[in-house]
Amino acid sequence: MSVGITLSTSGRIVRQLRHDRRTVALLIVVPALLLAVLYYMYEDAPGAFDRIALTMLGIFPFVIMFLVTSIAMLRERTTGTLERLLTTPLGKVDLLFGYGIAFSVAAAVQGAVATGVAYWLLGLDTAGSAGLVLLIAVVDAVLGVALGLLCSAFARTEFQAVQFLPVVVVPQILLCGLFVPREAMSGWLQAIADVLPLTYAVDALLEVGKSAEATATMWRDVIIVAGAAVLALVLAAATLRRRTP
Amino acid sequence: MNYQSAIEVSGLVVDRGRRRVLDGIDCSIPAGSVTGLLGPSGSGKTTLIRAIVGVQIVKAGTVTVLGKPAGSAPLRRTVGYVTQAPSVYADLSVRENARYFASLYGLGAADAERAIADVGLTSAARQLVGNLSGGQRSRASLACALVASPEVLVLDEPTVGQDPVLRDDLWAQFHDLSGRGVTFLVSSHVMDEAGRCDRLLLIRDGELIADDTPAGVRAAAGTDDLEAAFLRLIREREEKVAA
Fold it and tell me: Quick check: B1 pLDDT over 70?
């Protein structure tokens, strides 16, 4: 692993994103717009917007970064650049952490805009600070990136890559506590929810909603999400083969 | 000419799916030469190239490059590989591509500019690769391999779609670099490029049919036309197999 190569790989990925203005615009504007829709949906239900918008600030970056990364990595594979990179001094971990860093930068920009809009324009109200919400959103985005990289190893085409969304992402959204509080779910569903990393991200956000100060539970949750992301990145590196059939 | 060999292939067998793509290839590529790898589409050229750069899973046999097993870590600094489809980032400029590949070898902007100039793309350096013509794109891809000043350059059909003047320039450049000790393995399916090589490997249906200098191939087949010479060698071989 080389820090220089990892950083220059992140730089290259950010530069690729920058040339794609439409993607940048979509990345930044869409979550904020969706939050505005939620705001009007729950205008007459006091408190509901605060809870749902807060959860969504963690879910949006996760879903979007999962999709963007799995397609980006698949493109790297199908255009032959991956095969070529693997004949250079670049290490597999350099490439994957390069992706992780580049998309966390993108996620930080996206999260800052979405969080800013939620608090200042839509009047989101939480007991804890917006800074913590942003931190959790970025860690969540890194999780999305890591799972996207891992899943793209098992996809040969864009069609297959997109199909991993319902397989890997949707169950996590259903069970994370957004629709039904986890305590209200039956035991076996809770057991599944307990091993899905998004559950901990949402739990951390709800902690920020409830308490003025960062709680121990929140930090534990953040560490679990970050750990799951690193584990997925390492697994993704392990599934990346220099030699292929 | 007495060369030391840069690439040694011995008993190489590769299966892709159920198909045997390479069936016992033995050859040796001399250092500081330009060797042409010729054969029709589907003959196994790309597979042999992939085995030499160490990205192909092989069933049997060994490939040694500069005395080390193909694909081993030290070779990643000294072997340059240009794939058949230009493998550069279409959403980056030529310069951004060259600088990124330079950075993988710990090199800087000056090396990137030199490589861009070497392939004649200086005036297009700021353009996105995706907006270039096919020929320019494959030269951008070549620049990203030249940037590291490799000792061995393996090029899969680098001259496809290039205009004749540029193609001539590229070949002149290959010979110029090989004069300074760089070993080239260049694949092509166009026979008129065969005459430009120091040595030729002819491959067909996963088997090596000829491994000689162009003069040697001409003499063996008894004709001055390389295309006709290859045809004769293939026929002779088929008759031998049938007999």
Answer: no
Q: Give the tens place of pLDDT for each residue, A181-217.
A: 888 889 999 999 999 999 999 999 999 999 988 899 9
As for how many domains chain A has, the answer is 1
The sign of the torsion formed by the CA atoms of A205, A211, A214, A220 equals negative
The answer to whether A21 contacts chain B (CB < 8 Å) is no
A245 within domain boundaries: no
Cα distance from A95 to chain B (closest Cα, Å)? 11
Q: Which residue in B83, B88, B104 is closest to A5 by CB distance?
A: B104
The percent of chain B in helix, strand and coil, each rounded to the nearest 5, is 40, 30, 30
**Domain ranges for chain B:** 1-78+151-243, 80-149
Is B1-78+151-243 in CATH node 1.25.40.10?
no
Q: Which domain holds residue A146?
A: 3-239
Q: Contact, B7 vs B63, CB < 8 A?
A: yes
Q: Which residues of B touch A (CB under 8 A)?
A: 16-17, 53-57, 71, 73, 76-77, 79, 81-83, 85, 87-92, 96, 100-101, 103-106, 128, 144, 148
0.95 surpassed by complex ipTM: no
The first and second tokens of residue B118, run together, are 């070497």
| B83/A80 Cβ within 8 A | yes
